[in-house]
Amino acid sequence: PLRECVVSEEQAAVLFNSKFSSQLRSLNQKLPGSRIVVLDIYTPLLNLIVNPTRYGFEVSNRGCCGTGNIEVSFLCTRLDVGTCTDASKYVFWDSFHPTEAAYKFLVRYFIQQGEIG
């Protein structure tokens, strides 16, 4: 299947996020009056990928653009052959970047969690 997670990279991301959060707490204490916020995009994005239909998406294993597996950024436009007709049904626009609909979901998620607002 496409978009399988690589366990070692997944574990590295979790470890990095844990250590990074610890360092930011320390930095917040050293800089009174500052508010440094880290948003954990890993967890809600993984949830979207694993359970797309729960959040109104239909496709999470490939991007809307082109083949959805290799194209990235400027290689993807709405005019490319194979670009889907409704990007709002996809979690990813290209092989890497979330769609506008996925970003809207993530922003709403962070607002509901009280992490931004």
Automatic annotation (TrEMBL):
Pfam families xref list: Lipase_GDSL
GO MF annotations, alphabetized: hydrolase activity, acting on ester bonds
GO terms under cellular component: extracellular region
Top-level taxon of the source organism: Eukaryota
InterPro entries: GDSL, GDSL_lipolytic_enzyme, SGNH_hydro_sf
Sequence similarity: Belongs to the 'GDSL' lipolytic enzyme family.
Name the record gives this protein: Triacylglycerol lipase
Lineage: Eukaryota, Viridiplantae, Streptophyta, Embryophyta, Tracheophyta
